[in-house]
Amino acid sequence: MLQMVTDNTRRALLKAALFGAAMPILPFGCTSMVASKPTLIGCALNGRDRYSVVVADQQGKAIRQLPLPSRGHGIAINATRGHAVAFARRPGSYFMVFDFHSGEVVQLRSASDHRHYYGHGVYSNDGELLFVTEGERSTSRGIIGVYDVTNHYEKVAEFTGFGLGPHEVIAMPDGKLAIGVGGVHTDGRTPLNLNSMQPSLSYLSATGELIEQQTLLDNRLSIRHLAHDGDNTVLCGQQYRGQPEEYPPLLAMHQAGGQLTPLEAEPEQWARFNHYIASIAASKDWILATSPPGNCYGIWSKQSGKLVELASLPDASGVVAREGVFSISSGSGSVLTQSQPRDKSSIFTSIPWDNHWSAIS
């Protein structure tokens, strides 16, 4: 049985609403604005204990902001219904469904006492279901919560049996689910099993059957963030939980039935990423991955698997690929557009972007 939203969550949402974040953002001195098409959605930091989710146009300029009860993380988008979901940062206490056209909050779901959310989710390809990464607080047992979109986002099933600490889940073109399983048992954000962690890239059928599970040679590489190239290639980004002076590859590529293949860079280049990959996106030819703690992003050739550009970007955060063009956000407010290595442009927005972006297709 799902719990209703707690009084604390309600109070946090109402408090956040007081600063007007749910209103459309108007240019200074204007009483109306030319309609912009919602294209990108991501979470943002708005000062001490103030968080929001932002709907932006194709350049990353904000159209509207909605307040969040606590810090957000990933975004799922259902373009057919005009819905998006902002997921709380792990160990998350809520996810919020909203209409990205109007800014209306559709549902605000809170985690039960013994569960938490891991910060990510994805809609099924037909938009009828929402799959959410969840965990059992006492054990970190991984769960994919399945919610019926047509029935007010009621939970209808749970998938499990693939490991501890799932982080990101994505839907493949054929309807399978790919899950980045971190393998870490945590108390809050404190890891408890680094010596025995078992991360994996796991694939489930749309009905929850475990189809395939792949691992890396180094079990201290916690598999966390995922992307696919629009076809059958999955990219996974890792957080290294081993010795601080070691810098193993933090990105790998996979196709069904094959092995995980690490992407290539020199150890000193991997060191720039500060042991953590955040957002990943792939075009036909290129793979781009960001690192907020490393204040940088890298571009790899998908054909060779080799790093071809390593660029500085303060608090590099979200990235999406649309029609072969990457859009990259940052906590500094800069938004970059790049189609290939060393061919980029940038604008400055007033939004301190946080963690991830998703594109409305």
TrEMBL record:
SUPFAM superfamilies: Tricorn protease domain 2. The chain crosses the membrane at residues 12-35. The lineage of its organism: Bacteria, Pseudomonadati, Pseudomonadota, Gammaproteobacteria, Vibrionales. It comes from the Bacteria. Gene3D superfamilies: YVTN repeat-like/Quinoprotein amine dehydrogenase (2.130.10.10). The keyword Transmembrane helix applies. The keyword Lipoprotein does not apply. It comes from Vibrio marinisediminis. It holds the Pfam family DUF1513. Coiled coil: none annotated. This is DUF1513 domain-containing protein. Keywords: Membrane, Transmembrane, Transmembrane helix.
